[in-house]
């Protein structure tokens, strides 16, 4: 073969190989317009920057941190509309806030923003594309549909740590989220001590947070919550003004006032409107660099709206003030007809406070499934769209990733694809194991808010169908093996350590659930072939794993605001397992008398219950105060539903019941009050008896043998060990079974 011809063939073949390696990239958020070309260069290419002195500082610094910008062959031209460096491309830049034009070709990269934030986002898109080993030529014209896209730290529970927030701002910048509303209910200087300035150390931390947010082009919105005890007078108006001024000195340039979850004097719409107008006049307009105010109303969802409250805000409050809204209910997905209703009420575009994936009302669950249900046609009807997360910041990023994608370009949002991409983004080295975990942490179970999520445990459901179709237990056994192996992989991984620290109790719960599932199948097999000894061994393995799973806790450290008892796969796997075990035990008892002593004698199965007296709900009235009695309240608490939910567990050592309130994991002691000492099974377990459909609850062990009574709407310990008239007056009703 001619040497020149052979060399040409080799070059062409090499080029073809390189082109085949270069791939298009699934970008998130999905851009408005993308046109891919052929191979441009390797991601190991060095670059040189042109226009960096005038372009957005944070965008340029991000480039310098992430790519080699020393004397490279490929030129990066960067700047904003009006800069000399990108003047030639001005007509290609979308004329929209935060818009950008990105062009990648073999010899140069152009990143031209309509404004500084647009340039920053153009850099972020370039960095996503640069992750491929071989980078393709591309032209991207992009801008956000929704003006504000972000996160509200507004849940009840243990607030995010300082490091959580710092890391979160990097995540938000990378995913083009531009708003963080700081409103943790348990920051005393946000709520209980709202009149007081932050102490010096807290102010320093706040300043650091603001700087980190702004570096990522995230607007840090500081929220104050004065409604609990505000006095509608000049003094308190000045108090709020002074507090905002003090926070302004920390670098904050956006402010919000919360009036949610309050009662009494603070709920008056005309007073709230007047206060916001005062702040707008005396604070916002006197600072040229402060964003328009935001407020969360008392009637923040349609289900709670009544009277003229919303109309009063809409007509009396300055139209620049953004009004937050959660939808038809407290926890709801947002659709177009929802927006049409609320926007007409408040005479402006509502600012969406999406209560998802928040779990402060179902704390035993993680919500790791797809984020779906919001209208794809509401982009032009909102002034902002923010997500209220779980108290688990890293775990919430599964949903945050999709919220960012949705709010940027809702018309092109694909919930399933966005969820899949989030798994790789967050856990790239253990994506499949993480997928199995997330698939089994989707639904939140029955709650007072009514939201449910579809799609949990899809592999189990398919295997169960195969089993009921007569194909035996092979498919189910494979599913439980996969769950167990996936849990063990995650427990050993060094990938995403912050994420693993948060989800570790739930990962262990999945491992134990898998062990229980495998034991149930062994019980079923043993019953089928007539081996009672094997059945008992399998049952004991099931009971051991079940006991260990019951003891799992998350965030049970001293001073924890909420303590979770992690559960997984509760929608399909857990009900199947409980039903199977009960059925198998019944079948076993009909055939054998070997080791019947191992089976529990249990009046009340382990689970969550309401404790009721004459229709009223036993409630933890204040989860922060020890030594107080549980109270009976006539109505369901929809703000903190766990305060009326109780977990009953049969203690294996005493054969008595442990009764724990789900709000903060607090137990009731032998005096009928919330204990301040560490839980002790010999003191803090109860005997429960049933008579005529009602229960009596009685102390046991070292606590004596006194019954619970009710006086003045509170629990107390009766004076004698004999049941008083009416001792059998408690109803114990399964949560979700009403």
From TrEMBL:
Which protein family is named in the record? Belongs to the glycosyl hydrolase 84 family.
Q: Which Pfam families match?
A: Glyco_hydro_20b, Glyco_hydro_84_hel, NAGidase
GH84 domain residues are 147-411
Protein name as catalogued = O-GlcNAcase
Domain of life of the source? Bacteria
Organism listed in the record: Pseudoprevotella muciniphila
Alphabetized SUPFAM superfamilies for the sequence: (Trans)glycosidases, beta-N-acetylhexosaminidase-like domain, Hyaluronidase post-catalytic domain-like
What keywords would UniProt list here?
Answer: Glycosidase, Hydrolase, Signal
| Record-level Gene Ontology MF annotations | hexosaminidase activity
Signal sequence interval, chain numbering: 1-22
The GO annotation for biological process reads: carbohydrate derivative metabolic process; carbohydrate metabolic process
Catalytic residues as annotated in Swiss-Prot or TrEMBL: 261
